[in-house]
Amino acid sequence: MAGNTAQATQQPVKHFNLVRCVAVCLLTLIVLVGLAVLITWLVIRPKRLVYTLENGSLQHFNLNNKHINATFDFVLMAYNPNTKTSVYYDSMESVVSYKDQTLAFDTIDPFHQPHRDTARVESKLVAQNLALSPSTYKDLRGEKSSGEIEVDVHYKSRVRFKV
């Protein structure tokens, strides 16, 4: 019986050594991956892309029977300040909305932006005979009479970075 007791106490020690070995391996892997990410970041020094809405205009604006017809033209300037990274815009969409109601939508062709470059993105969004909610129609009509209409413009894009 004394032999069985000695074997029983040795098995948890082997189990503990296995757990410790796995933990050390995982910790080492995490540290190495973190170090690789840090070195990559220090070499590339990524900077945020800068976007500016340069110009916006509204043409052929007409409100009739709670429907809108309008053409929205916008110019977006996209600046890539990175010295080692270029940007591929795989897709880009622009949306004009007024008080949470989408008025017009446009897709922009894919393009490439080299490092330290400014790209001019023009979008023409057309609202053609779009039905409006009664409250939106009333608010738009009121803003039209004042001479200024405030709309929300959103751009959404899928990008890839190349070093």
Automatic annotation (TrEMBL):
It comes from the Eukaryota. GO terms for cellular component: plasma membrane. It is found in: Membrane. The chain crosses the membrane at residues 21-44. It is a single-pass membrane protein. Residues 78-163 form the Late embryogenesis abundant protein LEA-2 subgroup domain. GO terms for biological process: defense response to other organism. InterPro entries: LEA_2 (IPR004864), NDR1-like (IPR044839). Keywords: Membrane, Transmembrane, Transmembrane helix. PANTHER family: HARPIN-INDUCED PROTEIN 1 CONTAINING PROTEIN, EXPRESSED, LATE EMBRYOGENESIS ABUNDANT (LEA) HYDROXYPROLINE-RICH GLYCOPROTEIN FAMILY. This is Late embryogenesis abundant protein LEA-2 subgroup domain-containing protein. It comes from Gossypium laxum.
